[in-house]
């Protein structure tokens, strides 16, 4: 006989273990998607970024050196060794990851242990991307750090741009930031271009989020802007072609992640959007429980989306699709 059980509190804690609890938000009504997210009870820290290499290897970073790791069964706190606010995280493999943040903080995770890298700057670092061989961390006042085979270098840069995101593309890392800057560093030489490509099509806005897309990247930012970048050219996706008619809510979009041909985009005032490519692309607003700012998203699988934000907010979705975590009661 099949039984449908309500989602209940899943206690992932045992005596002496610093684990967290995951529970259902609770339905806000028979037709409400907002109440059908899973919400993580993870304290009150601001969570600024989330990344992973698989549904069983997800990292969340936040203020006061907070780091959480999901291993497919439990969400565990990990000792970071710092009280600096962490703003970015990249997962290169099951064993290797990096986190970056304020005061020039760079942390390396190797086989579940976090260690600090030798400081090369005191600037705020906002984001990082990584492979098993190299990594790029970006921040304010033109700061770019590049690691080759584990050795970090402060990249030569004659510009003072504020950089907010970096992602891998088929042609190497792409850095984006204030005033719509989009630029690729020379990873092998640890240098930045002396000149930027020309700005086109209303890109003089903050670009705050970036993720791999096809052979290039998806970029999101201020006023609901969404771009597809490829081979040095950024094409606007957030408005009807040839017009300024918006296809997205005019809010600050902070992060993007793509899986199985669908992009998940998050932003201020609790905004979650999905985007399916097309001419024009199709954008859908996914309701969330409240209007806290959403700052990070990781699409681990089409049925496993992680969203993080201000004041301890961590959601798993899609709403109404996922059950509770492995080992718990399922829908």
Provide a compact summary of the structure:
By secondary structure, the protein is mainly beta. The protein has no helices and 28 strands. The model is unreliable at 1-19, 21-30 and 324-331 (pLDDT under 50).
CATH superfamily of the domain at 46-266: YVTN repeat-like/Quinoprotein amine dehydrogenase
Span between termini? 15 Å
**Main CATH class of the domain at 46-266:** Mainly Beta
Helix content bin: under 10%
Stretches where pLDDT is under 50 for at least 5 consecutive residues are 1-19, 21-30, 324-331
- Please count the helical segments: 0
Taking the sheet with the most strands, its summary is: 5 strands, antiparallel
- Rg estimate, integer Å: 19 Å
Query: What CATH architecture of the domain at 46-266 do you see?
Result: 7 Propeller
Strand arrangement, largest sheet?
Answer: 1-2-28-27-26
Mean pLDDT over all positions: 86
**Helix-strand string:** EEEEEEEEEEEEEEEEEEEEEEEEEEEE
Strand content: over 45%
**CATH topology tier name of the domain at 46-266:** Methylamine Dehydrogenase, Chain H
Tell me how many strands there are. Answer: 28
User: What is the overall silhouette?
Assistant: globular
The SS-based structural class is mainly beta
């Amino acid at each position: 006989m099949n039984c449908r059980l309500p989602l209940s509190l899943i206690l992932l804690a045992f005596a002496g273990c610093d684990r967290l609890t995951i529970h259902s938000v609770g339905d806000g009504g028979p037709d409400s998607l907002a109440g059908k997210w899973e919400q993580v009870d993870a304290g009150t820290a601001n969570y600024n970024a989330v990344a992973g290499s698989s549904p069983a290897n997800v990292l969340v970073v936040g203020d006061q050196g907070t780091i959480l790791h999901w291993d497919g069964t439990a969400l565990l706190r990990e000792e970071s060794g710092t009280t600096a606010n962490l703003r970015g995280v990249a997962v290169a493999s099951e064993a290797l990851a990096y986190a970056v943040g304020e005061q020039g903080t760079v942390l390396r995770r190797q086989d579940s242990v976090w260690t600090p890298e030798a400081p090369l700057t005191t600037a705020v670092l906002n984001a990082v991307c990584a492979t098993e061989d190299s990594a790029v961390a970006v921040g304010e006042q033109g700061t770019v750090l590049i690691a080759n085979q584990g050795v970090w270098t402060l990249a030569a840069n004659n510009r003072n741009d504020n950089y907010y995101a970096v992602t891998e593309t088929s042609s190497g890392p792409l850095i984006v930031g204030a005033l719509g800057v989009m630029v690729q560093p020379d990873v092998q030489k640890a240098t930045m271009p002396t000149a930027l490509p020309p700005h086109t099509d209303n890109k003089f806005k903050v670009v705050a989020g970036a993720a791999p897309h096809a052979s290039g990247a998806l970029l999101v930012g201020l006023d609901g802007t969404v771009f597809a970048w490829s081979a040095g050219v950024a094409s606007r996706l957030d408005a009807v072609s040839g017009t300024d008619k918006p296809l997205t809510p005019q809010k600050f979009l902070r992060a993007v992640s793509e899986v199985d041909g669908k992009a998940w985009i998050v932003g201020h005032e609790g905004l979650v959007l999905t985007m399916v490519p097309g001419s024009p692309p199709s954008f859908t607003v996914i309701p969330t429980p409240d209007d806290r700012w959403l700052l990070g998203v990781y699409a681990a699988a089409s049925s496993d989306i992680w969203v993080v934000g201000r004041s301890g907010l961590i959601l798993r979705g899609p709403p109404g699709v996922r059950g509770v975590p492995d080992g718990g009661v399922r829908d």
